[in-house]
Design a protein that fits this description.
globular; mainly alpha; 0% strand; single chain
C-alpha cells in the first residue's frame, strides 16, 4: 500500500509540473534550481573529502571505504549521489552556450567542476558511465559540427577522460582494476556488488510471475544475497525490478510512457533545429540528455521511486506542451 501511495504521489508530482509550468522562462528557472541545489550537495561532499585529505595527509591515501561511507547521501548509496550529480551537467553545458556574460559562465564553470569531481569522489562506476553518456550525446547534438569532427572529438575524449581517471585517488583506480579482474578471471555475474547474480534472480522471478509480477516492493523478499544469504536485497536494476513486480505489462507500460515522451521531445528538437530557435533547442537538449543519462544509470540502480526521474519526465512533457502551444515559438521572455 505504501509503495503504491508513493508511486501515486510521484505521478501527481509529474502532473503538477506539467500543469503549473506554462512558459519557457519557468523551465529555465527550474534548470537553474537543479544546477545550484545539486552543486551545493557536491560542495558538502567535497568539503568532507578535503577533511579526509587533511587527516590522511595526501589524496592517494584515501580508502574506498572512506569515500563510500561519506558519499552515501540520503539514499545510503554513493551511486545515487553520483546519479544526482550527473543530472544538472547537461543543463550547465547547454546554458554555457546560451549565456555570453562572464559572470554566469563563470558560475556554470565552477558548478561543472564541482559536479564532475563530486562524481569522481563517489567512486561510482555507474556515475562515470552517466558522465560519459552525457559527453557523447552532447557532442552528438551539436548541429554546427560535422560528423567527421564529431568522430575526432570522440577520439580526443579518450585522453581527456584518461586524464580525469589518473587525477583521481589511487583507491579509485584500484577499484576499477579490481572490477576488471573480477570480470576477467571470475564471471560477469560477480561484477558490481554481485549485480549479475541479483539480475539472474530477478529474471527467475519474472519467469515465474510473467503477467502481473509479485507486487510493488515485493521482489526484494524473493532475492537472496549470494554471499551472506541475506534477503530483502534490491536487484539494482530499475527495469528488472519493474518487470518482476509489475509483470511484462508493467515494464511495457513504463518503457512506452518514457519512450513516447522522449520520441516526442526529440521530434520537437528537430523542429527547433530546422527553424534555428537555438534558445529552446539547447534547453530541450539538456532535458533530453539528462533523461537519457538517468535511464542508463537506472540499469544499475532502483529509480522508479526517485523523485528526480519524475521531475525530469515532467520537464520533458512540459517542454513538449509549451512548444505545441503556438505554431511560431516566441522565446523573447527566455532569460538569456
Amino acid at each position: 500500500f505504501y509503495a503504491f501511495k508513493t508511486q501515486l504521489q510521484l505521478f501527481l508530482l509529474f502532473i503538477i509540473i506539467v500543469q503549473v509550468i506554462r512558459e519557457p522562462k519557468h523551465l529555465f528557472l527550474l534548470g537553474w534550481i537543479l544546477i545550484t541545489s545539486i552543486s551545493i550537495m557536491a560542495i558538502f561532499l567535497l568539503i568532507e573529502q578535503l577533511q579526509f585529505i587533511n587527516i590522511q595527509g595526501k589524496l592517494g591515501s584515501l580508502s574506498y571505504q572512506d569515500i563510500h561511507a561519506s558519499a552515501q547521501g540520503v539514499r545510503g548509496d554513493p551511486n545515487y549521489t553520483a546519479l544526482y550529480f550527473s543530472i544538472p551537467i547537461p543543463f550547465i553545458l547547454s546554458y554555457a552556450k546560451l549565456y555570453k556574460d562572464i559572470i554566469r559562465r563563470s558560475i556554470l564553470f565552477v558548478c561543472l567542476i564541482l559536479l564532475v569531481f563530486g562524481i569522481i569522489f563517489t567512486y561510482s562506476i555507474s556515475g562515470a558511465i552517466g558522465l560519459m553518456t552525457i559527453i557523447v550525446f552532447f557532442v552528438l547534438f551539436q548541429k554546427n559540427i560535422s560528423l567527421l569532427k564529431k568522430v575526432i572529438l570522440y577520439f580526443l575524449l579518450i585522453p581527456f577522460l584518461s586524464g580525469i581517471f589518473f587525477l583521481s585517488p589511487d583507491s579509485f583506480k584500484q577499484r576499477i582494476q579490481d572490477k576488471y579482474n573480477v570480470i576477467r578471471h571470475e564471471s560477469f555475474s560477480k561484477w558490481g556488488t554481485n549485480r549479475g547474480d541479483l539480475w539472474l534472480q530477478s529474471l527467475n522471478i519474472i519467469k515465474e510471475n510473467p503477467i502481473i509480477g509479485v507486487g510493488l516492493r515485493n521482489s526484494p523478499k524473493e532475492i537472496t544475497h549470494p554471499h551472506n544469504k541475506q534477503r530483502n536485497i534490491e536487484a539494482h536494476n530499475t527495469y528488472l525490478t519493474i518487470a518482476a513486480e509489475n509483470g511484462i505489462l508493467g515494464i511495457f507500460l513504463f518503457v512506452l510512457f518514457a519512450g513516447l515522451i522522449l520520441r516526442k521531445l526529440f521530434s520537437k528538437l528537430n523542429i527547433l533545429s530546422s527553424i534555428n530557435e537555438n534558445t529552446l533547442l539547447y534547453l530541450g537538449s539538456a532535458i533530453y540528455i539528462s533523461i537519457i543519462a538517468f535511464l542508463i544509470q537506472a540499469m544499475f540502480l532502483e529509480t522508479l521511486f526517485d523523485k528526480y526521474l519524475w521531475i525530469l519526465l515532467g520537464l520533458a512533457a512540459t517542454f513538449i506542451k509549451i512548444t505545441e502551444q503556438s505554431e511560431k515559438i516566441d522565446c523573447r521572455s527566455c532569460p538569456v
